[in-house]
Amino acid sequence: MQKIHRSLLITLLVSSVSFSAAAKDVTVMISGGFKAALEKLAPQFEAKSGDKINLISGPSMGRTPQAIPARLARGEKADVVIMVGDALKNLEKDNWLQPGSRVELADSSIGMVVKEGEPKLNIKTDADLRNALLQAKSIAYSDSASGRYVSSQLFKKLGIEDQVKTKAHRVERIPVASEVAKGNYAVGFQQVSELLPVPDVTFVGELPEDVQYVTRFAGAVTAKAINGQEGKALLNFLSSAEAQDTVRATGLRSVTAELPVKQHDTVQ
Hints:
By secondary structure, this protein is an alpha/beta fold. It has two domains: 2-107 and 216-264, Periplasmic binding protein-like II (D-Maltodextrin-Binding Protein, domain 2, 3-Layer(aba) Sandwich); 110-211, Periplasmic binding protein-like II (D-Maltodextrin-Binding Protein, domain 2, 3-Layer(aba) Sandwich). 42% of the residues lie in helices and 21% in strands. It has twelve helices and ten strands. The strands form two sheets. A five-stranded mixed β-sheet has the order 2-1-3-10-4. A five-stranded mixed β-sheet has the order 7-6-8-5-9. Strand 1 (25-30), helix 2 and strand 2 (52-57) form a beta-alpha-beta unit. The termini are far apart. It comes from Pantoea leporis. Pfam families: SBP_bac_11. Keywords: Signal. Residues 1-23 form the signal peptide.
């Protein structure tokens, strides 16, 4: 009996060592829009696969050195990138990604926050939103896709481009809502999934549908991935049916169809 127990213990130890040796570190460069979803889903993937996810955060675009394209250009390593779909397309054109590895993950709408304790503004219609912005002492937007849309198109669509020019400010790299929480700006715009996790702000709501801009988030395996197979498995899990309740709970929309053309256009 003692020999049987000893044999079983040896078998378990060998299995444990083999499992540990097979486990891989999957390095993911990710922008803020999908980060909350991945952080919630990571434990499930790690438990199922035995692999470990390492996150490196950075904007999908912009001029900061933390931006994902800048990180890749200076030689930082990643197995997977998850970011705004149009920015991902640019990486593909520049041969930073493995051909055919792109996986559609979620759609993200733009929303607005105010500092906690401040009156919750009404932005249900274009007129409501226009009035709220004209009354606001200051406006903040991101340096990524949502901010480019707000600064280059939303104000123009609302007919207030000149009126808000001096009080609208771009926030680079850090979450817009964190600056609103500090009282540095009266209102802030960003992807809903990036606004919701930030404390000390009140989520006002999404932009009215006719002036909304929906951003597609997608992922791909990098051309120089060390653990590309594991990275692709992660992307397949994140896009699977079992992940969708968590994806939606973080303020994202499940991918059900191609985005309308006007929403798919790159914001310059």
